Structure formats: structure tokens, C-alpha cells
Amino acid sequence: MRLTVLAVALLLIGGVESRAATWLFLTDPPSERHLRDIERTGARVRTASRWFSAVSVDVEPSQVGRLTRLSFVAEVRPVGEITRRWSVDAARGAPILNAGSGDAQRRQIAADRLHEMGYTGRGVRVGMLDTGFLLTHEALADADVAATWDFVHGDEEVADEPGEDDAAEAWHGTQTFSVMAADLPGGLVGIAPEATFYLAKTEDVTLDGAFFESHIEEDYWVAGLEWCVGHGCRIVNSSLGYVLDYRFPNLDGATAIISAAADEAAARGTLVITAAGNTDGGRPLGDSLRGRISPPADAARALTVGGANSDGSAWLFSGRGPTFDGRVKPDVLAPAVGVSVVSPADDTSITSNRGTSFAAPLVAAAAALLLEAFADATPDELLTAFRTTASQADAPDAQHGYGLANAAAAYEQLAQRYTPAVVRRADSMTPVAWGALKASQRERP
């Protein structure tokens, strides 16, 4: 049985009464017997991962010895704790935008051309991992939400709950969701308003002045991803730009379990699309993650999205690559400045926000349109299509990746391999009301 030195150190911090979230890697996939035996030691089970034959527990230092003596426990490792901050000022004070405010962000990644063909994401299952979701806004009233789960509190309620969640905890998730799913013609329409969504709350957030301070524990993220994949989601968006205790040498796509999980999802037919993360604008320095992408953005088979300005150049505060093993990241860029989103402050207002958190769901929604057109496309084929058709595909670099995403060009590339599904549009449809595109009939060859 392997007990890492780091595990011992972290578990002993704070004395006997200190409880720490800890991974137990088992010799076999976790079973009910395993869970019962673990809980008999006094540890509390948090989540279980069949992908990694692992169980996460809350444990006191005095209980570690009992866990190490269990015959099926192969390794003990601390659950990674992640801290990130993002401003909420724009969500609170910005004025309502004009009608059709989401049009520019669709056009910048050429998703409007797929809308003109009639693709809206219908029939594609999309998962989201975020802070929670408020679904009362009029732009989200018709969103097709098939299932929800709060992995922090263990129930189906993903909105803010008095006594459990801080006020406005779900704002970030609500806004990233609206980039994909909003359907308010003349106001804000998302890129995949007719997709079917599975919403997982995987973060516990507290409010600190003008910023959210979030301690995200990776076991909830892994559990949320496994849940989405288990529900048949072909796309999972993770708008979580992390600042971790990892160092640059750990940015290899394998050290962080969340990065390994993103690759495992691809092997199971699900493409994880993740934000590159926001930085302070400084250049990468030494072995720190300052200025760099951070897990799971280093995953080899995840589609990592950096932020772009309105002219297509890289946003100054977008996380940069490469990975420690020299791979190009981010993969593509998408709008990260002035992105139109709903305002969770009420049920009617439209506002704007910025960050790679909003760039990622733009690309995730575009990927849903591509899967509607090409249902047999694999995660690796989608990743390749976005990379090789982006604006800087011939000269990728650590700041821009392969360049600004181009959904229409990715469509054309996939059409060379697959016959696209045909969407027959009603005569009354016009390219003006993008989100109101409702196909009267759909034919699939």
C-alpha cells in the first residue's frame, strides 16, 4: 500500500480534529462492500470513481492507519484543492444590451453559418460542470434540461439554496449556460438552444467582496464528469480556470486526476471542452503556473479554449501554453470580451461578461451543432477539425493555439468524411432570428 509523503503531511496539518478530503485508490473498482469497510474506519465517503477504481473520503489523521490496513487500498493521496477568482461586477451593473446581442459572438466563430443551415443542437446531449444554475430567466425558460445533480450537497437542486449556498453562488454557471442554451429571439440566443442539457454543480463557492473565492475539490469534478458521460453526453463543458498548487512540470496531462479524467472521457466517446483559464496578464515565469493554462486544460484529448478579443487576437488575460511535454495549448480561441449572457440579478435582463469561462461554452455549443450534423464524429475528429481549420492552423503558438475557432470550416472538413444530417427548414424561417430556427421536418440519410 502506497501512502505519499504529501498525503501524510496534509492529513496531519491542524491536529487530530482536522479532516481532509483524501483519495483512496483501490485494487478493484469500488463496490458496496468496499464502501462499507471504508466507512467502518470512521471515514466519510464523498464520491466513488469507477474509472479510476477510487473513492474519495473525508478523514481524520487518526483514521489513516485503519484505511492503510484495508487489503483493497493500494494508494492514499490528497484530493486536490483548487482556488480561482472571477469578477462579478459586469453581471451586477451592466446595462441591458440591444436586441440580438449574441449575434457578434456567433459570427466571430462562424456558428451563424451552421444556424443558417438549420442546426440548433437538437438531439445532442451536452453536460456542464459549474457552480450551479438558476433556470428562472426568461431566456432559459424553454431550455431542455434533462437532469441535474448537486455533487456538493448530494441532491437534485442546482440553484442557490438558503443555508447551504452563498447568495449568487450559481451566477457563474447560469451565465456560462446561457451562452449555449438561451433562446430569447430578439434578445439573447445561445449557439445550441435545442440541445439537451445535463447540469452538474461541482463547486462550493463563497463570496468575498467583489470576487467569488472558490475552493473546488477535484473529486466532485470527476464525479460530475462520470455522471455526464453515464447519461450519454457527447460534449461536456467545464468553464473552470484553475490556479492550483501544481507546478509547471506537473502540467503534463497525466499528473492531475481531472486531466486524466478528461482523456478517459474521450476514450468513452465524450469530448471535454475546457477553459484555458484566466491569468493576471503576466508572462509564464519559472516553474509556477502564473500566466499558464492549468488542469484540466493540459489534457491531451480535451479541447482547450483560450480567449480572443473582438479582432481575433489573443486576450491578454487568457492562459498560455505549452504543456510541460511541449504540446500546443490552448487548442483554439473564442470570444472572451463583451460576451453576451443573461443577468442572474433578475429574470429578464441581458448583460455581458468576460473571461475564458465564456469562450469555452461558445465552442462547446458549436461542437454540439457539428454533432447534430455528423452524429458519428468522434471526440478526436472534432478536436482535429477545430484545430486544423482555425485561423492560425499553419503556425500555432503558445498564446493563440491554432487560432480563432471556425465552426463552418470545421463543418466542411467533417463533411469530407461524413454525410451531414439534412435539416429541412420551414418556409417562414429567416436567418435573422437565429435562435428561433425550428425545423418542421428533419431527415437523416
Report on this structure.
- The protein has 445 residues and is an alpha/beta fold.
- The protein folds into two domains: 2-79, 2-Layer Sandwich (Alpha-Beta Plaits), CATH 3.30.70.80; 83-415, Rossmann fold.
- The protein is built from twelve helices and 21 strands.
- It has helices spanning 5-12, 32-40, 61-68, 89-93, 103-108, 112-116, 171-181, 218-230, 257-267, 356-373, 379-389, 407-415, and strands spanning 2-3, 20-26, 44-49, 54-59, 73-78, 81-87, 125-130, 144-150, 183-184, 188-189, 196-201, 204-208, 211-217, 235-238, 271-275, 303-308, 332-335, 339-342, 350-353, 422-425, 439-443.
- The strands form six sheets. Strands 8-11-7-14-15-16-17 form a seven-stranded parallel sheet, sandwiched between helices. The chain has a five-stranded mixed sheet with strand order 1-5-2-4-3, with helices on both faces. It has a three-stranded antiparallel sheet with strand order 6-13-12.
- Strand 12 (204-208) and strand 13 form a beta hairpin.
- Residues 1-17, 85-99, 207-215 and 426-445 have low confidence and may be disordered.
Helical content (DSSP H or I, runs of 4+): 25-40%
Q: Architecture of the largest domain in CATH?
A: 3-Layer(aba) Sandwich
Number of strands: 21
**Molecular shape:** globular
